[in-house]
Amino acid sequence: MRNRADYRDGGEVFMKRNSFYLCVAAVAFLEVAIFWLSVELADPLPSVIAIVVGILGIYLAKRYVHEVIEDERTEKITEITALRTLQITWIGLFLFALWIIIEALGDGVRHFNRQIGIFGFRLLVLLCGIIVLYVILSLYYNKRYGA
Amino acid sequence: MKNKIKVFRAMHDLSQEGLANEVGVTRQTVLAIENGKYDPSLILAARIAKFFKVRIDDVFLLDLIDE
Fold this sequence. Notes:
The structure holds two protein chains of two kinds.
Chain A: E1 7-9, E2 12-14, H1 17-41, H2 45-63, H3 72-105, H4 114-144
Antiparallel strand pairs in A: 1-2
Helix pairs in contact in A: 1-2, 3-4
Chain B: E1 2-3, H1 5-11, H2 16-23, H3 27-34, H4 42-51, H5 56-59, E2 60-61
Antiparallel strand pairs in B: 1-2
Helix pairs in contact in B: 2-3
């Protein structure tokens, strides 16, 4: 997408910050439309392809933005926000999983509500997987940054 | 950490946007540094000092009482 805000410098096309945000909004709009198409067709493939293509498109468009849209402060904000989101989500889901398991076992092991109980245990396994992934990434970045 | 970016900007007749473009950050980051809400990295502090052709500790002052 190009508009009057875009310009050329030495033959190379650059994009202004607002043009990039317009691109992101257009991609988001298309993603919603394709998701709806997927629902109508009962086929998840168009949605999956659209999301991958959309992410790649935004990544490529970002490379043509001449102005600064991300710097060390925005990176720090992203880091802290991501960490807090992970912590809150993890604790929330852990409590939810415990709640479900206790509900399932509430009438005793003999009357174990299998469907709900298995969902709770699967959720706990997923949460353990997140911890394992966190530890692996933490070790990797510790090594990368000299520990 | 206190800083004199506003003073140096005024001396160079430069806007926040202008300084941001020169040192490769957003205007919001310059504003946050000026207001003392964000402490820049050593690299950014060095870039700002280099742009104003002064030493880092001429621009940034570590206030140990506040720390």
